[in-house]
Automatic annotation (TrEMBL), chain A:
Domain Aldehyde dehydrogenase, first and last residues per copy: 90-409
Family from the record: Belongs to the aldehyde dehydrogenase family.
Full protein name: Aldehyde dehydrogenase family protein
Organism in which the protein naturally occurs: Streptomyces gossypii
SUPFAM superfamilies reported for this sequence: ALDH-like (SSF53720)
Pfam families: Aldedh
UniProtKB/TrEMBL annotation, chain B:
Protein name: Phenazine biosynthesis protein
Length: 483, 367
């Protein structure tokens, strides 16, 4: 579906005339499986200002028309139809290895890195991670389905079916990490028609996933890619049956009351450390903070310790200091990169939120917390913020770079300071602590022992099972004789 | 009104006056103690120049550049020209939506209707329907001049006009205080009324905003009626991007003629100019020159007019018998386009609100 060689590359069908003087990659819309142009386009630049791509834009009206079109397709479908897991496995392989939309895997990784400011090593390892997640989708769906609703209902039996709560799912996607997008694959495996509004800085990852899925043979009406503004997102959320929305506290305020919206907000993942500070403890903390440039919701935002917070913070800062600032497309990059002004604004925001906390990492960076890369962009160096009390508000401040708050904790305080946590690693040898954490509902995943906060199993829930929000058990009974 | 100024203020619609002739007539009319409004004749005493002798061309209007007009605070009756009081004509007071602060007020008797008659001529050229069936306006009525404009336009085109009122100030208040849900309920309330009118009346044409039209497409019950019945749609009030316009024409309402209208309470209506081969913009607006003079200036250096195909900030001047507006910087940005077919005024496209002092709000979290 795309030109096999030569620049400029384009994700548009090759039958379309391509303006050859345009040096930019062209990213089309996908409407119910069809790649189409828009009369409205937006230039997407890298974090260093280099123009990278022309992104075709979907205004809110297009979102509504596409939802209506998708619904017409769905109307003729079997209510429990869903793509064969074998197609998803094939799509994962294509994502990792094929030239899709005119982009080789390596060229995709470079565009993703330069636009999103995420080190290219992240996109590279995501190629295989995504392929693995795709391959595992069938097993995950099976594991998440209640056993009482899996069987064939025979005459004379009243039982349960595992049924979709709707047909059409809007996804308001982020740009923080390619792996985040694998979450909506679960919805596809449930048989939902997806309309994805990508994040402004990374339309490439969902575009590549959708290209791979279409090429693998997933029914076209199940997949749409609609880059656009907040208004486009709002129109999608309004028009779809259910929505998966990635966002910050503003999105939570906006959609939090809407029962049709599944919200993926800040992770505020944490570690609870009790006992001596060993090399292994420091490794797990630093890995939790700095893995994938610290931009995931499962990267740690805070460490609570019953030891000496100052000594721990200093040791963590020293271990994080070697993370290399470099342009995101370079092999050695390990830190997020933003346009200089945005990087400054982010650090200034952090300064305003300090509330008495001290950045003990500052000592490692004589030229300041931002590494000016000289091309209009800057890498964000790690911040390690030492707090004097367990209820310091910093533990709720999640920023998209390796930024960790270190706070004192006493056993008597229990789990109260650890509430609202997507992933908690309990760095201790006391299983009672892990059990106590499991009793706190707002801690969505507990990892006991030296494992980083971002660890996940093949069927472990990320924030509950997504399929449990997309599906429900409905009663179904069949008489033992026909009327 | 027949007087020495009739040939310029009320010239035939297809034979507009020379702009400088109109400027001189407007200065004489609005600043003469015999014919000018109490507001302008009083203000002129402190100008430091005499508009009747010192201004004889469009360019001379720059003398007004230091003169601020608080359209929100003026007692509106003081804006009625003395020269019009002897006439058995009825002035109306019309208010802006208040997007940029408290509502601005103007007075109008027939000048705006001439603007609308000119718009109707352009709609004829575009094959916009007339005659059979009725018109439905879904938009501001009440204090807003839009209702009067649409009444006149629908009558000129032989339609009965139905209205569903939309209070733009309430929508804005909802949105500015984070009450999107309430704004959504209000739009649904409007669309329920639209459905009722469409279901019972022979509606062939609609005027509304792009946003309401988009929301209507999202309501299957309303949209089915609109798609089936409408042969003409006028959109205006807010901007629309090129893809939305394409979708209106090609997908959403393939049986309807679609025509845009740019304008506001202060400047009047700049209808969509009939499309020409070679137009790069989907919709080019033509102001009612010289009664409404639009200029586009460099947002950073307002004294510089932008070149063709360059974006600039809108400056309007209004020179009608009913009211005068000196050159005024508006909130909109637009792209200047070469005037087609010997039209003497400038034309413009890609109108959008100017985000002054825009800074991206920083959001915590990784998404």
């Amino acid at each position: 579906m795309a030109p096999s060689s030569g620049l400029p590359s384009s994700g548009l069908p090759s039958s379309e005339p391509r303006p050859c003087e345009l040096p930019l990659y062209e990213l089309p819309l996908v409407r119910a499986g069809r790649a189409v142009r828009s009369a409205q386009t937006l230039a997407l630049a890298g974090v260093d200002g280099t123009p990278l791509a022309t992104v075709h834009q979907a205004p809110p009206l297009l979102a509504r028309l596409t939802v209506a079109e998708v619904r017409e397709h769905c109307a003729g479908q079997d209510p429990d139809s869903a793509p064969d897991p074998a197609l998803l496995r094939r799509a994962g392989r294509l994502f990792a290895t094929a030239t899709l939309g005119g982009l080789t895997p390596e060229r995709y990784c470079e565009l993703q890195a330069r636009a999103a400011g995420v080190p290219v090593s992240v996109a590279r390892h995501s190629l295989t991670d995504v392929a693995r997640t795709f391959a595992n989708a069938g097993a995950r769906i099976a594991a998440e389905c209640p056993p009482g609703a899996t069987g064939v209902i025979s005459p004379g039996e009243v039982s349960a079916v595992w049924a979709r709560r709707g047909e059409v799912l809007a996804v308001i996607a982020p740009s923080n990490n390619p792996g985040t997008h694998t979450q909506w694959l679960t919805a596809l495996a449930c048989g939902y028609a997806l309309l994805v509004r990508p994040g402004a800085r990374d339309p490439f990852t969902p575009a590549r996933m959708i290209d791979a899925l279409l090429r693998a043979g997933v029914p076209p009406h199940l997949l749409s890619l609609l880059p656009g503004s907040h208004a486009t997102g709002d129109a999608l959320v309004e028009a779809a049956d259910l929505s998966l929305v990635f966002g910050g506290d503003a999105a939570a305020r906006r959609y939090g009351h809407d029962r049709r919206v599944i919200l993926r907000g800040p992770g505020r993942s944490k570690l609870l450390h009790s006992g001596p500070v060993t090399d292994e403890v420091l490794d797990v903390i630093c890995d939790s903070v700095g893995h994938d440039a610290g931009m995931r919701c499962t990267n740690a935002t805070a460490v609570f310790t019953d030891g000496d917070p100052r000594a721990l913070a200093r040791a963590v800062a020293a271990r994080l200091a070697p993370l290399t600032p470099a342009p995101p497309q370079s092999d050695e990059a390990r830190l997020p990169v933003l346009p200089l002004a945005e990087a400054r604004a982010l650090r200034e925001h952090l300064t305003r939120r300090l509330d008495g906390a001290v950045d003990v990492a500052a000592a490692h960076y004589p030229d300041g917390p931002l590494a000016d890369l000289g091309d209009g962009s800057a890498a964000l160096r790690p911040a390690v913020l030492l707090c004097e009390r367990a209820d310091h508000p910093g533990a709720r401040v999640e920023l998209s770079f390796p930024c960790v708050w270190v706070l004192p904790w006493r056993r008597s305080q229990g789990m109260a300071p650890l509430r609202d946590t997507l992933a908690l690693t309990v760095l201790s040898d006391d299983p009672a602590l892990a059990r106590e954490a499991l009793r706190e509902r707002s801690i969505r995943k507990v990892l006991f022992g030296p494992v980083p906060t971002w660890s996940a199993g093949e069927v472990s829930p990320h924030d509950g099972y997504l399929s449990h929000e997309l599906m429900e058990a409905r009663g179904y009974g069949v008489a033992d004789r026909l009327l | 009104m027949a007087d020495d100024f009739s040939s310029v203020f009320e010239s035939p619609l297809d034979d507009p006056p020379d702009a400088d002739d109109l400027v001189r007539a407007a200065m004489e009319w609005h600043f003469s103690p015999l014919t000018g409004s109490p507001y302008w004749t009083e203000r002129a005493k402190s100008f430091g120049f005499d508009p009747r002798t010192d201004i004889s061309t469009l360019a001379d209007l720059r003398l007004f550049s230091d003169i601020e007009v608080d359209w929100s605070g003026i007692p509106a009756h003081l804006l009625v020209p003395r020269g019009s009081r002897r006439e058995p004509r009825r002035f109306g007071v019309y208010e802006s939506g208040g997007a940029t602060g408290p509502p601005k007020r103007i007075v109008d008797a027939t000048s705006r209707s001439r603007n609308v008659a000119w718009q109707s001529m352009m709609l004829d050229a575009q094959g916009f329907p007339s005659g059979e069936g009725h018109w439905l306006h879904i938009g501001p009525t009440g204090p807003h001049v839009m209702a009067k404009n649409i009444s006149v336009l629908s009558q000129l085109r032989g339609f009965l006009c139905f209205f569903v009122d939309l209070d733009p100030r309430w929508v804005r208040r909802c949105l500015s205080t984070g009450r999107e849900e309430e704004a959504g309920r209000y739009v649904d309330h409007i669309l329920d009324q639209v459905k009722e009118v469409l279901a019972t009346q022979d509606i062939r044409a609609v005027s509304s905003t792009p946003r309401i039209l988009e929301k209507a497409v999202g309501r299957a019950d309303v949209y089915a009626l609109m798609r089936e019945k409408l042969r003409g749609i006028i959109w205006g009030g807010t901007s629309a991007d090129a893809e939305t316009l394409r979708l209106f024409e090609e997908e959403a309402f393939p049986r309807a003629r679609i025509a845009g209208a740019y304008g506001n309470t202060m400047m009047g209506v700049a209808p969509q100019r009939t499309r020409l081969p070679g137009d790069t913009a989907a919709c080019v607006f033509r102001p009612h020159y010289p009664y409404t003079v639009v200029e586009l200036v460099d947002p950073e250096r307002p004294e510089r007019r932008v070149a063709e195909d360059e974006e600039g900030r809108v400056v309007i001047t209004v020179l009608t018998r009913d009211y005068f507006t000196p050159p005024t910087l508006e909130r909109d940005l637009a792209t200047r386009r070469a005037s087609a077919g010997g039209f003497p005024g400038i034309e413009l496209s890609e109108v959008r609100p100017c985000d002054t002092g825009h800074t991206a709000a920083l959001v915590e979290g990784v998404y």
